[in-house]
Amino acid sequence: MSYLQNHLLIAMPSLEDPFFERSVIYLCEHNEEGAMGLTLNVPLELNLYDLLVQMKLPEPSEHLKEVPVLAGGPVHNDRGFVLHSPQPGFHSSRQLSDELMITTSLDILSTLGTDAAPEQYLVTLGYAGWEAGQLEQELLENSWLTVPASLDLLFDTPMVDLWQAATATLGINIWQMPQQAGHA
To answer: Which family does this protein fall into (predicted)?
Structure first.
């Protein structure tokens, strides 16, 4: 099996898990040891401004009140992750692709809303994780569709439209998918 790092997982309509139903997940890592991703379309009842105030960071920009913080997944939902366009200089960053980095250190948060911030970014609390072989089994069970990630889907598509927009890149309407899929 080829690995799906830098791809999106799109929940099939039949996936009824309360957290993952109709979710779109960016896979930051996928290898023989398992997978780790960030859910991109489940907002928390928390905006970025309020999060930065709670963390006692310097007075954030008012426009961050319009930026949602996302529920990245059910694992370690007390840990923050910033998925962003490449920008070096943060303490704990990892290059995911030519177009994306992930940072987990606090130093990036103080730049958000300023000229020093990455051009594009999403902030999540928590992540989705799979043990070795677990995601592959879920793929065999037809729980997920996969598409290569694109900056347009990640940063420019409204969150409420992401599930359908990601599926549309495959040339299908998600609502026309059967609830149960078989294997030939």
So the answer is: Belongs to the UPF0301 (AlgH) family.
Residues 116-148 as b/e (b if ≥16 CB within 10 A, e otherwise) read ebbebbbbbbbbbbbeeeebbebeeebbbbbbe
Q: What is the pLDDT of residues 56-106, one digit of tens each?
A: 988 889 999 999 999 999 999 999 999 999 998 898 999 999 999 999 999
> Which residue type does 78 have?
D
**pTM here?**
0.92
Q: Where are the domains of the chain?
A: 7-176
CATH 1.10.730.10 fits 7-176, yes or no: no
Partner residues linked to 144 by β-bridges: 11
Q: Parallel, antiparallel, or unpaired: how do β-strands 34-39 and 24-31 relate?
A: antiparallel
What is the residue-wise DSSP string for 106-131? GGGGGGTTSTTS-SSEEEEEEEEEEE
